[in-house]
Amino acid sequence: MTVSYDSLLSCQSLRVAIMGAGNVGRTLAQRIVEKDLADVVLLDVVEGLPQGIALDLMEAQGLEYHNCEVVGTNNYEETANADLVVITAGRARTPGISRDDLLAINAKIVADVAEKAYKYSPNAIFMVITNPLDVMTYLTRKVTGLPPQRVMGMAGVLDSSRLQTFIAMELGISTANVTAMVLGGHGDLMVPLPNYCTVNGIPITELLDSQTINRLMERTRNGGAEVVKLLKTGGAYYAPASAASVMIESILRDQSRLLPTAAYLQGEYGLNDIYIGVPCFLGCRGVKKILELKLSDAEQEALHISANSVRKNVHFALESVGFK
Ligand SMILES: NC(=O)C1=CN([C@@H]2O[C@H](COP(=O)(O)OP(=O)(O)OC[C@H]3O[C@@H](n4cnc5c(N)ncnc54)[C@H](O)[C@@H]3O)[C@@H](O)[C@H]2O)C=CC1
Ligand SMILES: CC(=O)C(=O)O
């Protein structure tokens, strides 16, 4: 009897292209294949890097019992026909590089990566992770010209997960009991919503005093910086990769989970022509629906202050890559 071994291999029909094989990109690749979500193509400018990471991940395939393939490349053609493109390519902040310098550097990288990725995967949904997140997501949509539902940014799930963790740690309970919601831009001006944070449905405002809640919200705002200070050589990547993988799972499996996502606003929350974190149902079409929560006056004002800061940086980023 002859057997065609090709026919015995599982055929994964879904494909995620991850641009940037650094800490976030490679950890996300690991999360995706270990959840059996999709095949992954990892692309980076550094020769050998994505190929090495891909080989290493493939050598764990038999131990982790998944059927997804990982390929590493420096060539955009190999990323073709992705269902989802994730952009993690870029620089992280280091001593001597100002925020403005970083904005200009990453704007150039993201504009270039988005344009090339779109050329080979014009039907993909795009998810941006590179910082400054809300600005890079706006830029990606501008460069690709895609409908807004198909371009989104990851940050709110991470920020909410950090707040969820800090609430659970404070109360000495499992995070499984806790839900948390953080909206707004990914930065110092993010907007945690204590009224939408619960322990099995009980608002945290009934379990913690306002001073404690304020302390946990402040720690969340500084969540990224706290990890950088400890690591010294880079930023967080385990929780960011987990956050992105939850969004990706909701999209690829059409779960319509409600997740805080940097989405394009067209009047929602009184904001127009801007990407910022708001609760969205994510599914096979990308952002299926933006949910407009009832906010207090102070929360609404905080969201607008956060949006103004994003808007200023959007203008700067667009100019730095030659958009009028
Ligand atoms: N949105 C969020 O919540 C989060 C955002 N980030 C951001 O994600 C980005 C990546 O972070 P890490 O993976 O930790 O950084 P990293 O430095 O480990 O990886 C970045 C990778 O991008 C690659 N790269 C640079 N230019 C490229 C280009 N033109 N084409 C393809 N690849 C290119 C680099 O070679 C490097 O391998 C940073 O901007 C970081 O600030 C990180 C964590 C959370
Ligand atoms: C790097 C980053 O954006 C974060 O850890 O929140």
Characterization of this structure:
With about 325 residues, the chain is α/β, with parallel strands linked by helices. It has two domains: about 10-155, Rossmann fold (3-Layer(aba) Sandwich), CATH 3.40.50; about 155-320, Lactate dehydrogenase/glycoside hydrolase, family 4, C-terminal (L-2-Hydroxyisocaproate Dehydrogenase, Chain A, domain 2, Alpha-Beta Complex). The protein is about 45% helix and about 20% strand. The chain contains eleven helices and 14 strands. It has helices spanning about 5-10, 25-35, 50-60, 60-65, 100-120, 135-145, 155-170, 210-220, 225-230, 240-250, 295-320; strands at about 15-20, 40-45, 70-75, 85, 125-130, 150-155, 180, 180-185, 190, 200, 200-205, 255-265, 270-285, 285-290. It has a six-stranded parallel beta sheet, with helices on both faces. The protein has a three-stranded antiparallel beta sheet with strand order 7-10-11, covered by helices on one side. It has a three-stranded antiparallel beta sheet with strand order 12-13-14. Helix 7 packs across helix 8 (about 210-220) and helix 7 crosses helix 10 (about 240-250). It is globular. The mean pLDDT is about 95. Pyruvic acid (PYR) binds near residues 158, 223, 235 and 236. InterPro entries: L-lactate/malate_DH, Lactate/malate_DH_C, Lactate/malate_DH_N, Lactate_DH/Glyco_Ohase_4_C, Malate_DH_type3, NAD(P)-bd_dom_sf.
Task: Give a short overview.
With 324 residues, the protein is of the alpha/beta class.
Total helices: the number is 11
Overall spatial form: globular
Number of strands: 14
Q: Would you identify the regions where 5 or more consecutive residues have pLDDT less than 50?
A: none
Number of domains: 2
Proportion of residues in helical segments = 40-55%
CATH classification class of the largest domain:
Alpha Beta
Rg computed from alpha carbons, rounded to a whole number of angstroms:
20 Å
* Bound heterogens, unique: 1,4-dihydronicotinamide adenine dinucleotide, pyruvic acid
Main structural class: alpha/beta
Order of helices and strands: HEHEHHEEHEHEHEEEEEHHHEEEH
Average of per-residue pLDDT values: 94
